[in-house]
Amino acid sequence: MDAHKLRTAGIPPVADLVPHTATMLLLDRVVAVGEDTLQAEVRITPQTLFAGPDGVGSWIGIEYMAQAVAACAGYRRYREGCAETVKIGFLLGSRRYTASRDRFPLGSTLHIHVQQLLQAENGLGSFECFIDDGAQRVASATLTVFQPNDPQAFFNEGSV
Q1: What is the rounded distance in angstroms from the CA atom of residue 136 to the CA atom of residue 155?
Q2: Is 44 in contact with 107 (CB distance < 8 Å)?
Q3: Could you tell me the strand order of the sheet in which 29-33 lies?
Q4: Who wins on pLDDT, 108 or 159?
Q5: 116 forms bridges with which residues in the sheet?
Q6: Residue pair 85/74 in contact by the 8 Å Cβ criterion
Q7: CA of residue 23 relative to chain centroid, distance
Q8: Cα–Cα distance, 149 to 146 (Å, whole number)
Q9: Mean per-residue pLDDT for 57-83?
Q10: In terms of C-beta density within 10 A (0-12 exposed, 13-18 middle, 19 or more buried), how is residue 44 classed?
Q11: What CA–CA distance (Å, rounded) separates 44 from 47?
Q12: Between the CA of residue 140 and those of 14, 49, 61, 98, 117, what are the distances in Å?
């Protein structure tokens, strides 16, 4: 992911970019954005959702990635001037989710990186994602997502 083309100023709060609210909003902030990339951050504390005495299970990493993908889509809508930046989407699946540890320890700060690989007109997309702890990559995956043009019609009729 090309750090030279990333923007770090003028980014709205993550809550304005994703459809998650309250405790289900797992990301703390978006730190940088590019044309088809985004970097977000989460600090693992005892108050972090899903935290136990030793931290958060690394299986939650896939949700961190999915929320970063949602923030990337929300930021794109924000940049395009869409009045409604938050739009619902679905995580369809992942390929090769790997984690180098079983937990993200308390006190760590995770950096979630997403890069869009594909965005079809029908709302289907693919993102290459990884998480690092500032020293090394600790998880990675390719996510397949779907964001219908009209979510309400999709729910009502079951079609795009």
Answers
A1: 41
A2: yes
A3: 29-33, 37-43, 109-119, 124-132, 137-146, 90-99
A4: 108
A5: 127
A6: yes
A7: 15
A8: 10
A9: 92
A10: buried
A11: 8
A12: 21, 21, 8, 5, 14
Cβ–Cβ < 8 Å for 87, 77 = yes
Residue type, 78: Y
Compare 136 and 89 and report the one with higher pLDDT. 136
DSSP-based helix, strand, coil % in the chain, nearest 5: 25, 40, 40
Structure tokens at 131: 């998480």
Burial letters 47-70, b for 16+ CB under 10 A, else e: ebeebeeebbebebbbbbbbbbbb
For 29-64, write each residue's pLDDT tens digit. 999 999 899 999 999 999 999 999 999 999 999 999
Question: And the tokens for 53?
Answer: 């005495």
**What is the Cβ-side half-sphere exposure of residue 132, based on CA atoms within 13 angstroms?**
7
The candidate with the shortest Cα–Cα distance to 12, out of 72, 93, 92, 53, is 72
